[in-house]
Design brief:
Blueprint: E1 28-43, E2 48-64, E3 68-72, H1 79-86, E4 94-99, E5 102-103, H2 109-118, E6 119-122, H3 126-129, H4 136-147, H5 152-165, H6 182-194, E7 200-204, H7 212-229, E8 232-237, H8 240-246, E9 249-254, E10 257-263, H9 264-269, H10 274-281, H11 322-326, E11 332-335, E12 338-340
Parallel strand pairs: 3-8, 3-9, 6-7, 7-8
Antiparallel strand pairs: 1-2, 1-4, 4-5, 9-10, 10-12, 11-12
The structure holds adenosine-5'-triphosphate (ATP), iron/sulfur cluster and magnesium ion (MG).
Length: about 350
């Protein structure tokens, strides 16, 4: 079948390489090439398309097997849309996504169903994705039913085993979502994704809705499961501190584009993009003797419907020059595995 042919895509030349980061596996599992996802805006009696929200506007990156790529950026910059488009929960406008060398946008519905076993998502708010009238054991088993992989006792056994893997008890299977705390509900969300034993998980702000004390427990759980099951994560977050805790590499998004991508240590010690530097300056330092100058960005985030010409960040950039207002900077590699889209970096 044509859809199952494995085509190894040509590198776009923008891919990071893992050699600089010993924590990062070397095999590329996911390749995203010049991805665009636009949402039409309709108006008038005839509901004509009058403009587009350019939620994802030409993004390329790779995720290596066994690593966690953290994706950060402020609200509305397109993080969730990237995750959903990669999983084909949202249709792409343009670009390609390869999973283990396979062009997933070319996959037939049957093939896509098979691929979904390998590619799962954990949502920010598991409560809204759990049916309040269904015992959580049934919600967790849903994927097994859809894929017809286990039935009867084998299915129940796997649900109970998975509940234990995420730190819950087998008897929790009979309870309903409202009987759990936020942290426990997120564990249920993780169990739903894990039960199919996927290779790749998009974790879309999985700890943002949790108390800080619970956040680190869920992050540690995700890390333990990664080691046990060899998982690869695209981990989406607002918060750089969370990303620092879990990621091998960090990607920063601004207005539908990736503006910086680097191994974690390199990124946190040497952020090159002015937007990354501003995000970094907002991380609180626990030691009151150390002072850091906070970079306050002026101006509102421009609209993704009509992004500014040149560098999208120029209206808020403290060091913008003339070229920034006219020429969109290339996303280029400035040191091994460290890419940045800035004329002055
Ligand atoms: N279904 C949709 N229809 C129209 N516009 C959408 C849709 N989904 C997202 N958008 C728009 O696309 C842009 C990116 O949204 P997205 O949810 O991907 O951002 P995000 O980075 O995940 O934000 P947050 O941090 O708030 O979750 C936003 O301007 C949003 O309003
Ligand atoms: S290209 Fe110019 S405007 Fe954009 S981040 Fe770099 S210096 Fe700032
Ligand atoms: Mg989001």
């Amino acid at each position: 079948m044509a859809q199952q042919t494995k085509t190894i895509p040509q590198s776009t030349g923008t891919a990071p390489h893992s050699g600089s980061n010993s924590e990062t596996a070397s095999k590329s599992l996911l390749q995203v090439r010049d991805l665009r996802t636009f949402f039409p805006i309709r108006a008038g009696v005839l509901q004509r398309v009058v403009a587009h929200v350019k939620a994802v506007n030409g993004v390329s990156f790779e995720v290596f097997e066994g690593e966690t790529l953290g994706l950060v950026g402020e609200s509305g910059c397109g993080k969730t849309t990237i995750g959903r488009t990669i999983l084909r929960l949202q249709q792409a406008t343009d670009g390609k996504v390869f999973f283990d060398g396979e062009d997933i946008f070319a996959a037939s519905p049957t093939r896509m169903k098979q691929l979904r076993k390998d590619m799962q998502i954990v949502f920010q708010d598991p409560y809204s994705s759990l049916d309040p009238r269904m015992p959580v054991g049934e919600s967790i088993a849903e994927g097994l039913l859809v894929h017809g992989t286990h039935s009867g006792k084998a299915r129940n056994d796997l649900v109970q085993e998975t509940l234990q893997k995420v730190g819950l008890n087998p008897y929790h299977a009979r309870r309903y979502p409202h009987e759990f705390s936020g942290g426990q509900r997120q564990r249920i969300g993780i169990a739903r994704a894990l039960i199919l034993r996927p290779r790749f998980i998009v974790a879309d702000e999985p700890v943002s809705a949790l108390d800080v004390s619970i956040q680190s427990q869920v992050l540690n759980l995700l890390r333990d499961l990664q080691h046990e099951f060899g998982l690869t994560y695209l981990f989406i977050a607002h918060n750089l501190s969370v990303v620092e805790h879990i990621s091998d590499r960090v990607g920063v998004m601004y207005l539908g584009k990736m503006v910086e991508l680097a191994p974690r240590r390199e990124f946190f010690s040497n952020p090159l993009h002015p937007y990354s530097q501003a995000l970094m300056s907002a991380i609180p330092i626990p030691d009151p003797r150390i002072k850091r100058d906070r970079i306050i960005l002026t101006g509102d985030v421009p609209s993704p419907i009509n992004p500014p010409p040149g560098c999208h960040f120029h209206p808020r950039c403290p060091i913008a020059t003339d070229i920034c207002r006219e020429v969109d900077p290339e996303f280029r590699e400035v040191s091994p595995g460290h890419l940045v889209a800035c004329h002055l970096a």
